[in-house]
Amino acid sequence: MTRAAGKSGGPLSYPWGTLHRMDIVIRRAEPGEYAELGEITARAYLGDGLLDFGESDEYLGELRDVAKRAAAAEVLVAVANDRVIGGVTFVPAGGPMADIAREGEAEIRMLAVSPEARGRGTGEALVRACIDRARAVDGCVRVVLSTQRTMHTAHRIYERLGFARTPERDWNPIPHLADVMLLTYELTL
């Protein structure tokens, strides 16, 4: 069973509700979990070959800096058996963590699941939590995200949940490297 939970482990009273799937709890990350989630995210990106410069990639520091993300957006974690197994950054409306969100849009960033927890619905549960959260944000009409071409499992999750490709919004985060292009998706709420 997946459920949203508060710091005490009990159900949250978030207006965006509760998720139910297997034994995974989706909730806001706590400061004591930031380092662990940062390592899960960094390992996932490194292990999947998503960083152009491997261990020396500048983005690796951003992936590990969960405290910075939590100060500017909402960081959600997936927990199973009292262990963090994944996380995502939900950007409700612009701000320093938004890459492509426009007015009336929320953005999903840095979705990662530990390798040993993959295939259990964790990634989908995290994306669903972001969708539910976006529905609770006043004036939010759409959820957007960027993804790499090789993130095929994530693409399947997005498409299964109703996201559509928006090639007109694809963008290059490293302009001096012409072959680095992020694909974009959106979900109208």
Automatic annotation (TrEMBL):
Pfam annotation, one family: Acetyltransf_1
Keywords of the record: Acyltransferase, Transferase
E.C. code: 2.3.1.189
Broad EC category: transferase
PROSITE patterns: GNAT
Molecular function per GO: mycothiol synthase activity; N-acetyltransferase activity
Domain N-acetyltransferase: residue ranges: 24-186
Protein name as annotated: Mycothiol acetyltransferase
Organism: Streptomyces jeddahensis
